[in-house]
Amino acid sequence: MPKREVIVPEGMENIYDRYHYAPGILVGDTLYCSGQVGRDADLNVVEGAEAQFVQAFENVGKVLAAANATFDDVVEMETWFADSMADLTTFMAVKDRFFTTRYPTWTGFAVKGFSMPGILVEIKCKAVLGLSE
After folding, report:
1. How does pLDDT run across 17-30, given as a tens digit for each residue?
2. What is the three-class DSSP state of 40?
3. Alpha carbons 123 and 108: distance in angstroms, whole number
4. Is 10 exposed, middle or buried (0-12, 13-18, 19+ CB in 10 A)?
5. What is the pTM of this model?
6. Could you tell me the CA-to-CA distances from 56 to 28, 62, 91, 99, 119 in Å, in that order?
7. What is the C-alpha separation between 84 and 127, in angstroms, rounded?
């Protein structure tokens, strides 16, 4: 039977301790990543759409790396955009910096807002380890 391992990358301990959720859960070879947003380790929202999208993907990358995975292992991605998808072109350009050859499935949604003011996007992924080998 697969075991359940909590994944908390360095610098994300405050999320686990303060908000009581895991940035990732590894079950067998499947990694479930919590939604990541464009905020820094001090939980400050990054200014500017492109910079915030980059930070959100870097946060996803930290969760993946902590589980010994890469963006090549991601099989599913869901994104939520604040209010509209006005910045979709910018988001896609940033996404293509992280997913360069192996693309996941992707579903995007527009939502009314997030738990912190100023957040423009949230990215949630599922990865299967060993796919990048």
Report:
1. 988 999 999 999 99
2. coil
3. 9
4. exposed
5. 0.94
6. 25, 10, 10, 14, 10
7. 27
Instruction: Measure Cα distances from 27 to 5, 7, 11, 24, 112 in Å.
Output: 6, 10, 22, 10, 32
Tokens of 27: 């079950």
Instruction: Give the pLDDT score at 132.
Output: 59
Asked whether residue 65 carries a pLDDT value surpassing 80, the answer given is: yes
d(CA 64, CA 8): 10
The pLDDT score that the predictor gives to residue 42 is 86
Strands across the sheet with 30-37, in order?
4-7, 24-27, 30-37, 121-128, 74-82, 105-111
DSSP annotation of 112: S
Give the pLDDT band (50/70/90) at residue 133.
low
pLDDT at 103: 95
Phi (first) and psi of residue 73, to 5 degrees: -85, -10
Q: What secondary structure, in 3-state letters, does 7-30 show?
A: ECCCCCHHHHHHHCCCCEEEECCE
Distance CA 9, CA 109 (A): 27
CA 61 to chain centre: 7
